[in-house]
Design brief:
With 226 residues, the protein is α/β, with parallel strands linked by helices. It folds into two domains: 33-125, Nucleic acid-binding proteins (OB fold (Dihydrolipoamide Acetyltransferase, E2P)), CATH 2.40.50.140; 130-225, OB fold (Dihydrolipoamide Acetyltransferase, E2P) (Beta Barrel), CATH 2.40.50.430. It has three helices and twelve strands. The protein has helices at residues 5-29, 40-45, 139-145; strands at residues 37-39, 53-60, 72-77, 86-91, 104-111, 116-125, 130-131, 154-160, 173-176, 183-187, 201-208, 214-222. A five-stranded mixed β-barrel has the order 2-3-4-6-5. A hairpin with a 6-residue loop joins strand 9 (173-176) and strand 10. It is elongated and about 60 Å long.
């Protein structure tokens, strides 16, 4: 098939635009402008990044944060690592609702020579966990059991019956067996499944305490949500 001159010119122009765009992406990825996420180790090992705006990904270290402090302070290390280099994050924004112990945080800001990152942007990656509700207690089961379940590790199931709140407060969210049923507040400082939302069926392991909240150690979506 023959291509006329006008079509050839148009094709050359489109190809040139694509090549320029690809080149910009490649050059951006190699600069310190935060265009792609480095690991904690990569960021700390490159002295040329000090004073630059970078994007870093890492796991939030359990207990390293306090949402009541402004700006928020927390520590991250390489994903999957239990030890090793740490970046101290100073975050001036509001954390995502899924933020918590063990969450993968992707933070963007200015890297300092002391190993801290003055971050203005953050997103979290939290893998979605599923669990079977077989054998789990309902909200009514727990409430009717009263003191018999206080301080005992159990698994409960129900529907998310409130907005999801950031970690650090008394209750992260509430669950109920039905939209109009009695509710139990869930206290949890860990990372939540990234797509959890009001109305979702969840399976939660933890214990009821005298403060009236169910203190969770693990939160998963019910496998009925798959």
């Amino acid at each position: 098939m023959r291509v006329n001159k006008r079509a050839r010119v148009r094709l050359i122009g489109v190809t040139a635009i694509i090549l320029v765009a690809v080149g910009a992406i490649i050059l951006g990825a190699g600069s310190g402008d935060g265009s792609y996420a480095r690991s904690v180790s990569e960021a700390l090992d490159d002295p040329e990044l000090v004073g630059e705006r970078v994007r870093v990904t890492g796991t939030v270290i359990d207990g390293s944060w306090d949402q009541g402090v402004k700006p928020m302070l927390f520590d991250i290390r390489d994903e999957g690592a239990s030890s090793g280099p740490v970046i101290n994050v100073v975050y001036s924004g509001s954390p995502p609702d899924t933020f918590g112990d063990g969450a993968t945080a992707i933070v963007t800001g200015i890297l300092s020579g002391d190993g801290s990152l003055d971050a203005t942007d953050m997103i979290t990656k939290c893998p979605t966990k599923y669990a079977a509700a077989d054998g789990a207690m309902t909200v009514e089961d727990v409430l009717s059991s009263g003191a018999n379940v206080i301080g005992t590790e159990i698994t409960i199931t129900g529907l998310v019956a409130s907005d999801i709140q950031p970690a650090g407060g008394d209750s992260r969210f509430a669950i109920a067996s039905t939209s109009a049923g009695e509710k139990i507040g869930i206290a949890f400082d860990g990372s939540l499944p990234s797509d959890i939302d009001e109305g979702d069926a969840v399976v939660i392991t933890g214990e009821m305490r005298d403060d009236g909240f169910f203190h969770a150690i693990e939160v998963a979506l019910s496998d009925s949500e798959k």
